[in-house]
Amino acid sequence: MTGCVFKRKRDRSISWCYVFFGGWDIDGKRIQISKAGYPTKDAAAKAVRLAIEEYEAKTGRITREPGPKGRRVWSFWLDGACQSGFQTAAEAQNALRDAIARRDAEKRKEAQEAADRPGPPFAQFFEHWLNEHASRRCAPKTIERYGELGAYLIRELGDVRLNDLTTAQVQGAIHRLHDHGGRRTESEPQGRPLAAKTVRHIGTLLYTVLSDADRLGVLNIPHPMANRRVLLPKLARRRPPVLDEAKLQTLFDRARSTRLYPFIVLAAATGCRRGELLALQWSDVDFQTGSLDISKSLEQTKAGLRIKSTKSEEPRQVSVPDWALEVLKQHRTAQGNDRALFGRAYTHNDLVFCQPAGEYYSPDRVGARVTELMRKVGLEGVTLHSLRHSHAGILLSKGVPISVVSERLGHADQNITLSIYSHALPADSRAAAKIWNESMADVIAAAR
After folding, report:
1. Integer Cα distance of 386 and 99 in angstroms
2. 0.70 cut: is pTM over it?
3. How far apart are CA 60 and CA 103, in angstroms?
4. CATH topology assigned to domain 245-432
């Protein structure tokens, strides 16, 4: 089977087209297949070759070849196999139709047999997926989180065979987790409601597991969660908690007498993540240019602490304000006193922020200590991560371009920054009203 390409002019535009002839219809006429709109002859030629291959793979191919006695006979090809000896094209076409019908019937039978196999229980497949598939592409901390979220799914769907799973069952499990999926208490004997964010994470994990089961051929039914068939609870859009300049001043004053002071200052002055600061080494600090090289992060898992790449997996350089640099210099001097005090017992990891003996800090412990310090000065509803939010919010409120803020925060995409920090501080809202009022002064005067 061959095709041809040709030019076609329409409405002052020229495009290339292809055409080829397939089998015969029920009236004995050749089936013509064509398509237009290709910008070049090469593109149309490539497209017709692919179209013919796809057509022949589906419908077979009829040819006329020399027979054993020198006479030309008709043959058909289907799925790589050939059957010949037909005297006419019609005989070959009829035989080809029968072969296609047998092939399609066999495929339907195989699909039905596969659908009748219920597959492993969800709990069994989830454990296999977690250990054999997710572990190869996810960080240990992520695997731990998947295990925690998966426990909810196993509790609700663990005994259900994978190919018996229905959309209604998944939706029911999501509703139950949202209403009573949490810990049981005296006031909530059936279980406390789970946060909408947690339930959405559970739903996303289930979708991923089932998608991998589908990809691996274990799921022989339509994906129960495809095309948003399962509705997850809506997530209320909340502004990230931030500290304005006055609250930051209060926190700095309270932290000044603690070992946390330089850590809090640098977190607020750079917007770096907790793990990035705790993995920071003095070799990453350039006091002459006033910059930090952020290329790694400290992660806490059940197996212990480990150094990994940054969240975006891309290194970046962050400029440090002069005041924060002075605090860092003073901190380096104080750290030298620690080294002298511990002597040979000191662990030389070259860390900027470490325990008195030079060991790594626990990220969770540092976060808890900063939150505790904030509460002591009356700052409720904020955490260590709020310093990162505050850094971004202050810069954006002062007119720093979103691209610069996104780069400082280490976001992979500016849209991430915009989606999180599209709000404004209350003072900026008032300033916006004042600017508008001043800009419209002539219009307002005329209106009066």
Report:
1. 68
2. no
3. 11
4. hpI Integrase; Chain A (1.10.443)
